[in-house]
Amino acid sequence: MIKRVIIVDDHQLIRAGLADTLRLAYADIKILEAENSATAMGLLAGNEVDLAIIDLYIPGEKNFSFVRTLCDTYPALTVVVLSGSENPADIRKCIDLGASGYIPKSTPRQQLLAALEEVLAGKIYLPDVITHIMPATISSNGVAPGLTLEQVTASLTPRQREILKLLARGQSNKQIARNCQLSENTIKVHVSAILRALGLSNRTQAGVLMQQLQDATPYTQ
After folding, report:
1. Three-class SS of residue 60?
2. Is 98 in the same domain as 187?
3. How far is residue 157 CA from its own chain's centroid?
4. I want to staple 210 with a disulfide (CB 3.0 to 4.6 A). Which of 84, 122, 159, 168 is the partner?
5. What is the predicted pLDDT for the residue at 142?
């Protein structure tokens, strides 16, 4: 359930349309709006917010810089990128920086609301444009005959690969967060994304799988 949200987009019509959609779905929702990053950061400093829905291309910001700033400054905040870009590279980059979801602006209303519910439940939301190109090669029990290390790493962002290596060493989320200099909540988001990308059910499967692949092929990346 969304209670407090901030919408950051330089287009007033986009903000208004999204705000109307959210108000129809959530009667008691509190919505803050910002047209640029400076206004958004000021609002976040003075208000409690559960969810930030932000455009990828914010005036005055370099590509991805606001996503990075927001996730680093407020690691407990659920950040969702709502963008006109459906470039898989953009999607992967946003998730790697700590965003919990990436929703194309072409997404239908009900699917958008379902996506927001997913991220607020602690899951990662990725659009079909990227999930369709991720190899579903690993079975739910972690047994993957013929699977290569290259296939696994190609399905993950650089940050996710780093976290997967630490999972294989048996490290807890707290230990991984310390080693990666990220919040524990951000690590949880990344672990969820790793499991989803590889089609696994839990972190133990991910760690065991990585250990098996490292034993078979020395990991040098």
Report:
1. coil
2. no
3. 11
4. 168
5. 41
